[in-house]
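This entry is passed on directly below:
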Amino acid sequence: MLKREELVKKAFDGMKNAYAPYSKYHVGAAVELKDGTVFIGANVENASYGATNCAERSALFAAYSNGYRKSDVVALAIVSDGDRLCGPCGICRQVLSELIGNDVPIYLSNGTENKDTNMGELLPMQFTEEDVIR
């Protein structure tokens, strides 16, 4: 398992690929899996903001697209070049709650500040598959 700092560095490497011509706000993410594989992601904006994809979803969707699932996820790092820490947006919180679960460590950093958290803390009273499967 990577150290926190190593996964955060990989997320900053992913941030270099951000496409943010509108907001100028760059975000990177890295998801570590049990077998040591790490997928990176970056935010990719679109003039139609609803079509924008966040860095953490980009990284996690890459992992899922390669056959990995919730039980494979060890940790997630999300970084930005903002003045404040970048927590996941509401859509990402919903996606992460289903695709990584409550207890996976999430490392947030902007290069100056750092915070360790998880989905149980970021999204209490989650809407899950248990709410829609009867």
User: Anything to note?
Assistant: The first strand starts at residue 27 and ends at 33. Residues 4-15 form the longest helix (12 residues).
